[in-house]
Every structure is written in C-alpha cells, then in structure tokens.
Design brief:
Helix content: 10-25%
Strand content: 25-35%
CATH superfamily of the largest domain: Spore Coat Polysaccharide Biosynthesis Protein SpsA, Chain A
Bound molecules: uridine-diphosphate-N-acetylglucosamine, magnesium ion
Oligomer: single chain
Number of domains: 2
Largest sheet: 19 strands, parallel
C-alpha cells in the first residue's frame, strides 16, 4: 500500500455494528510482526513463508488473528516483503513495510498510524504459529483497561526476555536476555512477545521508547515499564504450553512445530474414530475429512482437501492430494493420487498413479504400475497392470489388458479415446486417439488400433505369425587364426 491509502477494514464490525467478543464499545485491531530476516533458517525464503503443514507459517498466524474477528489486520513486513505480500495476497491485510528492522517496538510503531485510536491492539509474531484462539482471547480480554502480556514458564529461558515482578507479584519490566544480570537470567518466566494494549497506550508510550540497550533496538516490551512508571498495572496471563508460544528461528524449531502440529491432527483424527497404524507417521498438509471406520496405514501424506468415506482403507506410503474417496474403497500401498474422484468399493494400487481428472465409478479397479489422467473409468471396469490411460472415457464392465497404452498425444494436441461398455482390450495394445471402440468391442492382444472399432467387432492389427520349420540358429563365429 502506498501512503495515504486506506487500510482494508474487515467484516461487519467495521461499520460499527459490533465490537470484538460482542462488546459494542471495543474494536480489536491485530498487528503481526513479520519483518525479520530469519538468518538462522539459512534459506533464501523469507522466514515467515516457510511451510508449516504445507502452508506458510504466517498464514497460520493470520488465520489465528482472523479467528478473533478483528476490525483490521496489519502485518509488518521487511525482508522479502514482496514475496510475503504476494504469497498471502488472498487475505484482507494492511501490509506495512518496515524497511529497516530497528526492533519490535519500531515495528509496531510503523503500523500505528493506520490503527484506530479507540481500538485495542493485539501484537502477534509471524514466527509463532501454534498460538491458540483461547489464549489470544484471554489476552485481549485482559487488555481492556491497560497493557497485558502473555508470559510462559519454560525449562530453558536462555535468549528470551525475562519477566521481572515486584514482591506482590506485579510485573515491573521485561529485561532482554542480553541486558539481564546473572540473577535475572535465572528467572524462568519469559516474555512470549505477544501482548495486547489499548491503542492509546501504545500511542502514548511507544514514541518514548529508546534504544539504549545491548542490541541498540527499540524494544516493544519497554512500553510496559513506561506504563508501570506511571503507576499503571500490567496484566499478565500464561500460555497453555511452551509449544503454543514456541518461536521458529531455525530449521530444528520449525520441525518441532511441524511435529507438534501433526501430532495434534493425528490425535483429533483418532478422537473422531479413525484408526491410525502409527500416529507419528501421518502428515496432513491441508484438510482431511473421514467417515466411520477409516483405517490409515503408516507414512501416508494428505495434501489439500481430502475426503475419505466410511470403511476406506489407505495402505502404507501413499500420497493423496485433493482427492475424494467414496465408502468401502481400498487404496493399496505406494499409490499416488492427485485431483481424483474415487467411487465406492474400488481398489487402487499397489503402485498406482492417478493423475488429475481421474474418476473411478463404483467398484472399478486400477492395479499396479497403472497411470491414469483425465480418465473416466466405468463401473466395475478393470485396468489392472502396467497401463497408461489418458484422456479416456471408459464405460462399465471393461477389461484392459496389461501393457495397454492410450496414445493421446500426437506431439501437438491431445485426443480422446472412447471405450464402450463391456469392451475387452487384449494385452500390449496401442490405442491411437482419437478413437472409438463400440460397446462389446474386442481388441486382440498386441494390436495397434488406429481406426474405430464398431459394436461387438474384433480388431486385430498385428503381423500374422509365421512358423518356419528347419531354420538354423546363428552359430558362434570362428576365430580367424
Ligand atoms: C523478542 C522479545 C523477547 C521475547 C522473544 C520471544 C523484544 C525486544 N524482545 O525477542 O522479550 O522473549 O521475542 O520470542 O521484543 N520483528 C519485526 N521488526 C523488527 C524486529 C523484529 O518485524 O524490527 C519481528 C521479527 O520478524 C519476529 C518478531 O518481531 O517475528 C520478534 O523479533 P525477534 O528479533 O525474534 O525478537 P527476539 O530477540 O526473539
Ligand atoms: Mg525471536
């Protein structure tokens, strides 16, 4: 956005009909800090674009923010800002570019001009993606009258800002690890970085925050000590778990967050009645919907939108991306399915590759080393071995022999093969599209079929066999001398 542009306002609340959590006097705005480089990721990709469960880390945070139904969402970006804003362009975000990263306080300050003065502001981090809705709600609720901070008790506090409290337990300040004394470093209660405050407080205190500290940065938590100095109280609440507030700085932490996310999904599936061979060996990068009595073997990856009907069985080492599988179907080991619709009672694989546009009617069978693409396989039809079926409409009750190829591509255009009901195609046949084989048609094994086969006709297109009697096998050449 350029200067002077109006940031997008979100939902009906923007019209002032309703504030956050149903309170008509309150407007919630969220600022997500996501400008940091993420040097320790050792990657060309901006840190917040690294995928968690197949989607950018920042997208998870944006969704957590939108779950609170804020009136506006501001995301502060810096390193790789074009890539970040492009990747998440679908979201209603006011992108704020922070050209130089001078600290978390400086980051928030960049977004403040776009924030309504009478709103409550929630600050999130783009690299803390597992933060939960309930925790955020509690934090925002605490911030009605003044600043509130989310803290956590952690086993290894090194690197974090520590929470300093007075004798009555009231928060006094946050001291960064690098500015902390040995005694302060012994404190295990840390600043998660996430805080909420009335916009008025941030407007009052943030411009007064200096950068006289070990890192020469403008620290956001310094607004808290400024508030305390004026006799204001800072409310705090604790995160549910250390995991919820784990920040991602390197590949190892990203992996920790990924495994935690996948563990939670596996647990939710099992609670819903899905049988998993190993809860630690399933990855869902998107949405998986399951019917009753679904069984999933080890090392299965689900991507995009996948739905499995009742009694579906997925064998080990399968990948399913944007696929619907109807009730009673089994997908055997090592199969790869993408943008396919599988009917009820089908059998797929092992080693099947179903590419986009594949549709299997009820009880169809696609066996090992079979590739399909843009293909409708009719009810009860069988394509069991070593075959390519592309751009094909196949009726019911068809039997395709091993080694059959639909030649759908002439080097320039794709053509369709239309196979009628009850057709039998013998092994090792080549069906050169465009081609129509009428109902009940029969193709002899080893044929190359280039002309239409009418209903109930037999097509044979191969060299006639000759048997030569008394022929001589070639003998071994004699050496010259
Ligand atoms: C910060 C907190 C620390 C807390 C820790 C929790 C400060 C000064 N310190 O430290 O108390 O324990 O988080 O993880 O706030 N960012 C910007 N612009 C900037 C600087 C940072 O957008 O100018 C973003 C980063 O991309 C990141 C987040 O703010 O998403 C936190 O910044 P980071 O540099 O990681 O802060 P820490 O030193 O970890
Ligand atoms: Mg950090």
């Amino acid at each position: 956005m350029g200067p002077g542009d109006v940031p997008p306002r979100l939902s009906a609340q923007a019209a002032g009909q309703q504030g956050y959590f149903g309170d008509s006097n309150m407007q919630l705005e969220v600022i997500i800090l996501a400008a940091g480089q993420g040097t320790r990721m050792k990657s060309k990709l901006p840190k917040v674009l690294h995928p968690l469960a197949g989607r950018p880390m920042l997208e998870h945070v944006i969704q957590a923010a939108l779950g609170l139904e804020p009136t506006a969402l501001h995301v502060v970006i810096g390193h790789g800002f074009e890539a970040v804003a492009t990747a998440l362009a679908a979201y209603p975000v006011n992108w704020v570019v922070q050209a130089q990263q001078l600290g978390t306080g400086h980051g928030v300050l960049q977004a403040l001009p776009a924030v309504a003065e009478d709103s409550t502001v929630l600050v999130l981090y783009g690299d803390v993606p597992l933060i939960g809705h309930d925790t955020l709600r509690s934090l925002v609720t605490l911030a009605a009258e003044g600043p509130a901070l989310l803290t956590a008790e952690v086993a290894r506090p090194a690197g974090y800002g520590r929470i300093l409290r007075d004798d009555f337990g009231a928060l006094v300040a946050v001291v960064e690890h690098r500015d902390a004394s040995a005694a302060q470093r012994a404190i295990h209660e840390i600043n998660t970085g996430l805080l909420a405050a009335p916009a008025r407080d941030l407007l009052a205190y943030l411009p007064r925050v200096g950068n006289e500290n070990a890192q020469g940065e403008y620290y956001l938590p310094d607004v808290l000590s400024l508030a305390v100095a004026e006799g204001r109280a800072v409310a705090t609440c604790r995160a549910d778990s250390e995991m919820e507030v784990l920040g991602v700085n390197d590949q190892q932490q990203l992996n920790q967050v990924e495994r935690e996310y996948q563990r939670r999904q596996a647990e939710a599936l099992m609670r819903a009645g899905v049988a998993l061979a190993d809860a630690g060996r399933i990855d869902i990068r998107g949405t998986l919907r399951c019917g009753v009595d679904v069984r999933i073997d080890v090392n299965v990856v689900f991507e995009g939108e996948v739905s499995l009907g009742d009694d579906v069985v997925i064998g080990p080492n399968c990948v399913l991306r944007d696929v619907t599988v109807a009730a009673g179907t089994t997908v055997h080991a090592m199969s790869h399915l993408q943008e396919a619709e599988i009917g009820p009672g089908c059998s797929v694989g092992p080693f099947a590759r179903l590419r986009p546009g594949t549709r299997l009617a009820a009880r169809a069978r696609v066996g090992n080393f079979v590739e399909t693409k843009n293909a409708d396989i009719g009810q009860g039809s069988k394509v069991n071995h070593l075959t390519y079926i592309g751009d094909c409409d196949m009726g019911p009750g068809v039997n395709i022999g091993a080694g059959t190829i639909t030649c759908n591509y002439d080097g320039v255009n794709k053509h369709r093969t239309d196979i009628g009901a009850g057709v039998f195609v013998g092994s090792n046949s080549t069906l050169v599209a465009p081609l129509r084989i009428g109902d009940g048609g029969f193709v002899a094994a080893g044929s190359t079929v280039t002309r239409a086969v009418d209903q109930d006709e037999l097509a044979v297109s191969r060299a006639r066999q000759r048997n030569i009697q008394g022929w001589r096998r070639p003998g071994k050449k004699q050496a010259e001398d």
